[in-house]
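Page 47, continued from p. 46.
Same chain as before, 316 aa.
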Amino acid sequence: MTPPPPPLGRSRRRGAPVFDVALDDAPLATARTALAQGRWSVVRSLLADTGDDWDRRGHRVTGLAQESTTAAWARDWRLAEPESADAAALLACATVHRALHGKDRPDAARSACRTAAALAPADPTPWLGLLILERSAGTEEDVVRLFDEVRHRHPEHHHAHHLMVARLAERRADAGQDPMHEVYDFASWAAEQAPADSPLAVLPVVAHAERYRVLAAAGAESADPVASGHWVGRRARQVMKAAFDWWLEWERDDHPRNRVDLNFLTHAKFCGGRPAEAAALFHRIGPHATPAPWSYPDRDPAEAFRAARGAALGNH
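Result:
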C-alpha cells in the first residue's frame, strides 16, 4: 500500500506556519493518518467518543472529509455498517468536498447529506455539509434555510456562523465601508444571543475581516490590510476591544476551533496597530495558523502570517 501523504500543509521550513485543518486536535490528526491507511475503525472510535459535542463533531468530520482517500474508505465503512450515522456523515461531507473540487456531482453530495441527516435527525453535521456546499453557489434562500437547519440543532454552531458571515459579507460589494451593512448586524446579533462564554463573541471581528476581503477584491480598499485603514476606525476598534476583552476573560482554549478565532483576532489587532496585544495572541496561536484571514484579499498566507508575527514579536 502506498504510504499516506504528510498532513496538509506540513512545514518544510523552520518557522513557517503549519496550515493544518486539524488545528490543535491531536486525536483528529491521528485518526486521519489511520484512515489514510484504511483503518477506519480508528475513525469510528474517534467519532463515537466525540458524541454530541456538535462543534467538535463538525470540526472532525469536515477535517477528515478533506483527505483524498476518505470518500473511498467511508464507502467501505458504510457497506460494513449501513446503519452507522457516523459513516454516513463522513461520506456525506467527503462527497461535498469532492463536489466542490469538481470530482463529484453536487446532486450526489446533496443526496449523501440527506441520507446522513435521516440517520441522525438531531445531528447538525449533515446540514453543515450542505451549507458548505451551497455557501458559494446556492441561492440566498437555500443558504438561509440550511443555516436555520444547523442552528435549530445547535444554536451556537461555530462553523455555520462563520460560513454565514462570509456569505453575508459578499452582499452589496459596491456599497463600500457601510457601518450599517447587514453582515455587521448579523454578527452582533449572534454574539449577543450567545451565552457569555461562547466564542461567537469574536464573530464581529470575523465579519469585519470578511467585509474587508470583499471590498479589497472589488478595489474599494487597499490590497494591503494594514495600509487600508479598515481596522483603525471607531467601530473597528470597539469590535476588537470587545473581542479581546472576551478572550482575556474566557479564552475557551477547549473549543475545537479556538485557533480559527485567534487567527482572526490576531490579524485584526496587528492590522489595527496593536502589536503588543497581537504578540500575546501570536504566542497563543503557536504553530496553528489558518489561511484566513492572512490570505485576504489575495496574499500568500504563510508569508503574511510570518511577516506579521515577526513584526509583532520583534524578530524580523
